[in-house]
Design goal:
With 257 residues, chain A is of the alpha/beta class. Chain A has helices at 37-53, 68-78, 96-107, 129-137, 191-197, 238-253, and strands at residues 2-6, 9-11, 33-35, 57-64, 82-87, 114-118, 141-151, 154-160, 166-172, 175-179, 202-206, 217-223, 232-234. Classes of the chains: A alpha/beta (257), B alpha/beta (305). β13 (232-234) of chain A pairs parallel with β18 of chain B, so a sheet runs across the interface. The structure holds flavin-adenine dinucleotide (FAD) and adenosine monophosphate (AMP).
Chain lengths: 257, 305
């Protein structure tokens, strides 16, 4: 069985962002980077399927500059067998259709039985790449899954809907699923597995070989939203902060009155 | 400009988000037509043309078939834009349609500024104005971003469209959210724990503050996904929508899906170490502090009153 999982490296969302000089993306300097949260669930699920079926080969793919290899190593340490790094310093500004095009081009002749992606990336958040890849490859896809089971060439999933309602959806492989938060409990790589991961294959491919589609949209401008609300911001020593807050609760809410 | 609005129908009901689609078309100053796989027994208040396929015949969830039906309507109506809600139905179907139409898709539009479609980035800390390059475009709209001043009126001119079974996905029905337990929607005071609490043991400190305030405690999704708090207490689009008198968000960043569940609270207090956290946009008071020190101290002072 052949499995592919696609991951993206994103900044920690608690970072202090700045708009880049180009005005069309955020400045990538001085940010802490990590695996897109949704993709951690995708990797975990892919590894679980591999462990279940035994005879499986699991590739992790990531498009980005050299720095994404750090994040790929985490996926290898979680249990992926090999890494396919699509080297592209300009990946951040590529739109979902281009990213999906690259992934589909990579996957086209490799007969993956299962492809896992995240439901969305935390920085761009388009929630498109996974479903687009499946459309490009002509295989069925199920988005936003919170439960997954594989048996005998079939998958059974629960899609998450609004209000916590779930829809039971099944299909046959080859298929692609996009993973939602809470799908499983992503494992922490153990030290021995981190050591082992260093020896795993991590091949870099030039993006030019795989990018065969044209962009359908561009970012005209990136900017900070105007601050809404204009609520009160309290900073300082916590004892005083607590007293201030109690005063506000008494005056404004009647909660402690 | 003409926009084709894709309404949603689930479990026998037309979803209220249809009004947001109508509001969006109005905001764009566009003509519109509507599409829904639903039922004649659940029509929207909408003074326009409605293409209706019966869900009983083609399935409520059957993206392959819904896509094909949409393609037929798009061929007939030739809209410049096709608009979905950014919902579990919309973000699933929109890319399938965009791919078939060779159209650009712009996801989660929050506003239209000088004709440009604006979407959030990086947990809503940033905004992005998008310039599509294709003539026809597909958009999904962020829940709650567009609203009507008045409820829409009128009845649609219905054109029934056919469509049978088929499709590669097998839909096996719905599973309801867990029932029973606490009902947060009735609570007047809610103190919620976010990922910022750091570890499960710290749920107790949030529960203690809730108790001191004679309220209930809630949680954001990561806290629930980690199994630290039961799902019944989750606030947000995939949890509960609450409107208490007082909502205290502790270590919650303020992602749109969380805000959707609590932003109508009467008074909102946020406790966060990150002064720029988006929760600040809806908070009446943002206390910049480490909750692990601040929350126990606040609880103690309230108990001593
Ligand atoms: C389809 C969909 C549905 C979703 N439904 C929901 C939903 O119903 N409800 C929901 O909540 N989320 C939902 N989410 C997830 C949502 O997008 C966010 O991922 C989630 O709300 C983040 O939770 P959080 O704010 O607790 O965590 P984070 O975003 O990680 O934020 C943690 C915050 O804690 C602060 N912090 C850290 N340490 C401290 C400290 N010591 N003291 C004080 N502050 C601290 C940080 O500055 C940060 O702001 C959904 C997502 C999707 C895609
Ligand atoms: N640069 C990338 N490299 C590999 N996979 C990606 C990349 N960008 C997005 N993806 C995948 O596509 C999913 C959805 O991303 P998006 O459509 O940008 O929200 C992510 O969760 C990843 O699985």
């Amino acid at each position: 069985m052949k499995i592919l999982v696609c991951i993206k490296q994103v900044p920690d969302m608690e970072s202090k962002f700045k708009v880049a000089a180009s005005g069309t993306w955020y400045d990538t300097a001085d940010l802490a980077w990590r695996m897109n949260e949704y993709d951690e669930y995708a990797v975990e699920q892919a590894v679980q399927v591999k462990e279940q079926v035994g005879d499986a080969d699991l590739t992790v793919l990531c498009i980005g500059g050299d720095q994404v290899k750090e994040t790929m190593k985490k996926a290898l340490a979680m249990g992926c067998d090999r890494g396919a790094h699509v080297a592209d310093d300009k990946a951040a500004e590529k739109e979902p259709f281009e990213i999906a095009g690259i992934i589909a081009e990579f996957a086209r002749d490799k007969q993956f039985d299962l492809i896992f992606t995240g439901m969305q990336s935390q920085d761009r958040g388009s929630a498109q790449v996974g479903v687009l890849v499946a459309e490009m490859l002509g295989i069925p896809s199920i988005s936003t899954i919170v439960q997954f089971a594989y048996a005998d060439g079939r998958i059974e999933t629960r899609r998450e809907l609004e209000g916590g309602v779930k829809a039971v959806v099944k299909t046959t492989v080859p298929a692609l699923v996009t993973c939602q938060l809470g799908l499983n409990t992503p494992r922490y790589p153990t030290l021995p597995n981190i050591m082992k991961a260093k020896k795993k294959e991590l091949l870099s491919l030039p993006v030019a070989d795989l990018l065969k589609v044209d962009a359908r949209q561009a970012t005209a401008k990136m900017y900070f939203p105007a601050k809404k609300g204009g609520g009160l911001v309290l900073e300082g020593e916590i004892g005083q902060l607590a007293d201030q807050l109690i005063q506000i609760l008494k005056e404004k809410t009647g909660v402690l009155a | 400009m003409k926009i084709l609005l894709v309404a949603e129908y689930r479990d026998g009901k037309l979803l209220g988000s249809v009004n947001e689609l109508i509001a969006f078309a109005a905001k764009m100053g566009a003509d519109s037509a509507m599409f829904v796989v639903g039922s004649e027994a659940a029509l929207p208040a909408y003074a326009g043309k409605l293409y209706l396929a019966e869900a009983s015949a083609c399935g409520e969830f059957n993206p392959d078939v819904h896509k094909q039906l949409l393609l037929d309507v798009v061929a007939k109506e030739q809209p410049e834009m096709i608009a979905f809600c950014h919902s579990s139905y919309g973000w699933d179907l929109a890319p399938r349609l965009a791919f078939a139409l060779k159209a650009a898709q712009v996801s989660e539009v929050v506003e239209v500024e000088d004709g440009a479609l604006v979407v959030p980035a990086c947990n809503a800390k940033l905004r992005r104005a998008v310039a599509p390059k294709t003539k026809q475009i597909v958009v999904t709209l962020q829940a709650g971003a567009f609203g009507l001043a008045e409820a829409p009126s009128g009845s649609p001119t219905v054109e029934k469209i056919g469509g049978g079974g088929g499709g590669r996905l097998e839909f096996g029905g719905y599973e309801a959210a867990e029932a029973g337990g606490v009902d947060l929607t009735k609570a007047e005071i809610i103190v919620s724990a976010g990922r910022g609490i750091g570890k499960p043991e710290n749920v107790a400190m949030i529960a203690a503050l809730a108790k001191a305030l004679k309220g209930e405690y809630g949680a954001s999704r990561p806290v629930v996904d980690s199994g630290w708090v039961e799902h019944k207490r989750q606030v947000g689009t995939t949890g509960q929508t609450v409107t208490p008198k007082l909502y205290l968000a502790c270590g919650i960043s303020g992602a749109i899906q969380h805000l959707a569940g609590m932003k109508k609270s009467e008074f909102i207090i946020a406790i966060n170490t990150d002064k720029d956290a988006p929760i600040g946009d809806v908070a009446d008071v943002l206390v910049v502090a480490d909750l692990k020190q601040f929350v126990p101290l606040l609880t103690e002072k309230i108990m001593a009153l």
